[in-house]
Specification:
Elements: E1 23-24, H1 29-32, E2 45-46, E3 48-50, E4 56-58, E5 91-95, H2 124-130, H3 161-164, H4 171-174, E6 184-188, H5 207-214, H6 229-233, H7 236-248, H8 251-262, H9 265-269, H10 274-284, H11 287-297, H12 301-305, H13 310-320, H14 323-331, H15 337-341, H16 346-356, H17 363-367, H18 373-377, H19 382-392, H20 395-406, H21 409-412, H22 418-428, H23 431-441, H24 445-449, H25 454-464, H26 467-478, H27 487-492, H28 497-507, H29 510-520, H30 524-527, H31 534-547
Antiparallel strand pairs: 1-2, 3-4, 5-6
Helix pairs in contact: 7-10, 10-13, 13-16, 16-19, 19-22, 22-25, 25-26, 25-28, 28-31
């Protein structure tokens, strides 16, 4: 008879002595309860520690050796990437220290892994010993003394069948902490749209939805899913199916779907998949259907605007409803404009309102910005809204705000967000506004060009400034002092200022470019020693070759440091 099996855990890193972390895959349920595998099961685990882009960082490679107590190797399968989270309201979780399956090819169910901060993580021995149902999974590093004797088999409990069926967990597991940074079994108590786990034969799905998800040959139509429209809308595959059909559906087919969807519209607006179905009705529905949905949104515009999925529905509604309905929607945001502007979701709604709603209906939005321009321009979301305002609002509305902005130009050009607003003024502003920005830069070209954020503004001044302003800036860069030094030589060797020199070569007139090339040539050998000189050398050589008639001129659309402006459009409306 083989000795009882214990879970042997690796430490959190090579040579580390901290508690182990375990991530796992629960294998086929029939394997778990098969007596034939009760004595010699393989444990599939990989070391996982908090950190990394998804909250994890692998501390051990998948090829690391894992050992059972009897000396056999533990098979280590690569784990799936973390499943994209859906809303978790109504879900209870129980931490599971380990999971078991046959060493043969397995059928795995995904289980969501949650990271834990170190100060929340008790030692695995404390957690396991404190809970009678988890004592059989005792953590023991390779080479450590044998663990205490295990309880008799009849007292051991692998995984409650209730847990594997995603029902209500037994009371003993309701409060077990996931102290080992490993998997958490999600028990479904909430609505169907809150699904985190997906596995074959999901008890919460209807037989029709299960058949739809599994049948890849049958061609379904909207009439085939009558009385299941809401359930399909809350399912990833079902939602995509309805969206595709609505684009080409007849009016009768749209009405068939709408009758069911309208009764649950508010729920669907905030659902991770359902919101796209509502958006499709604003795009392809009748005016009556759009009006019905708009009425359901009344009194809830602020709440929806601040919600991750609801804000997309509000934006789509503002694009497609009539002006009276637009005005009614945005009025609900009166008194909450700054709250929305500074919110990661609400700022997109304010941007869309500025773009789509007539000026007379959003006057309160613009008025709320007075005295707040500097605060908003230096905010990661507020800077986007300020740019949309300068784009779409008329001169009478924006002039007072522009004057307020100009008082802070020197500070804004050096701010990580404010510099985008000043760049926007240079690109789209009136000549007087552009000249005013250039006047703030003149006399400080070297210092601002060597600044990470301000160098972007200097580039825009050279590219979009009036001819006299541009010449003044270029003269400041190329002027030679009495000691023979010039700003040009310093800027060529700087990691940020060299981009300003590149832009200058692109936009200057031919006589000025030739004079600049003559000044740069003697320093080419020294420039090659600097990491940041490569792009400038390449550009200089191309222009010299072009002058000699050897090659085409380089593209002058922009410098080589890549896109410099943040996403400014309302990017949360697409699927």
């Amino acid at each position: 008879m083989q000795p009882p099996m214990r879970l042997q855990g690796q430490a959190s890193g090579p040579g580390a002595g901290g508690p182990p972390y375990i991530d796992n895959i629960v294998t086929d349920r029939s394997m778990m309860y098969s007596p034939a595998h009760s004595a010699g099961m393989a444990i599939h685990s990989a070391g996982v520690a908090p950190g990394g882009p998804h909250g994890f960082s692998r501390t051990q490679s998948y090829s690391d050796n894992r050992y059972l107590r009897n000396g056999g190797p533990v098979s280590a399968y690569p784990l799936p990437q973390p499943v994209a989270q859906r809303p978790t309201g109504g879900l209870a979780s129980a931490g599971v220290a380990g999971s078991f399956g046959a060493p043969a090819p397995y059928s795995a169910h995904r289980i969501h892994s949650q990271p834990h901060t170190p100060h929340q993580m008790p030692h695995p021995h404390q957690m396991l010993n404190a809970h009678p149902h988890m004592q059989m999974m005792h953590m023991q590093a390779p080479g450590a003394p044998s663990a205490p004797k295990q309880p008799p088999p009849q007292q051991q409990m692998l995984m409650p069948r209730e847990a594997m069926m995603y029902g209500t967990p037994p009371p003993a597991l309701m409060n077990v902490p996931s102290a080992m940074g490993g998997a958490q079994v999600m028990f479904r108590n909430g609505p169907k749209s809150a699904a985190v786990m997906e596995s074959p034969g999901h008890p919460q799905r209807s037989a029709l939805l299960e058949e739809f998800r599994g049948n890849k040959t049958r061609k379904y139509e909207l009439k085939d899913i009558c009385d299941h429209m809401v359930e399909f809308s809350c399912d990833q595959h079902g939602s995509r199916f309805i969206q595709q059909k609505l684009e080409q559906a007849t009016q009768d087919e749209k009405e068939l779907v709408f009758e069911e969807v309208a009764r649950n519209a508010r729920q669907l607006m905030t659902d991770v998949f359902g919101n796209y179905v509502i958006q499709k009705f604003f795009e392809h529905g009748s005016q009556v259907q759009k009006h019905v949905l708009s009425k359901q949104m009344e009194g809830h515009i602020l709440t929806l605007s601040l919600q991750m999925y609801g804000c997309r529905v509000v934006q789509k509604a503002l694009e497609h409803v009539i002006t009276e309905q637009q005005a009614s929607m945005v009025r609900e945001l009166d008194g909450h404009v700054l709250q929305c502007v500074k919110d990661q979701n609400g700022n997109h709604v304010i941007q869309k309102a500025i773009e789509r709603v007539p000026a007379e209906h959003i006057k309160f939005v613009i008025d709320s910005f007075h005295g707040q321009v500097y605060t908003l321009a230096t905010h990661p979301y507020g800077c986007r809204v300020i740019q949309r305002m300068f784009e779409h609002c008329d001169e009478a509305q924006t002039r007072p705000l522009l004057e307020e902005l100009h008082r802070y130009t020197t500070n804004l050009v050096q701010d990580q967000y404010g510099n985008y607003v000043i760049q926007h003024v240079m690109e789209r502003g009136k000549p007087a506004d552009r000249s005013l920005v250039c006047s703030r830069v003149r006399g400080h070209v070297l210092q601002l060009s060597k600044h990470k954020f301000a160098s972007n503004v200097v580039e825009k001044c050279i590219a979009y400034g009036e001819i006299k302003d541009r010449r003044a800036l270029i003269d400041e860069i190329t002027a030679v002092r009495r000691d023979g030094s010039s700003n040009l030589i310093n800027m060529m060797k700087d990691q940020y200022a060299n981009y300003v020199v590149q832009k200058m070569l692109d936009v200057v007139e031919e006589p000025q470019r030739e004079a600049i090339l003559v000044k740069i040539q003697p320093h080419m050998a020294a420039l090659r020693k600097f990491t940041y000189g490569k792009h400038l050398i390449s550009k200089v050589e191309k222009y010299m070759a072009m002058r000699d008639g050897v090659a085409e001129p380089p593209m002058s659309a922009g410098s080589s440091r890549g896109p410099q402006t943040p996403v400014s459009a309302s990017s949360k409306t697409s699927a």
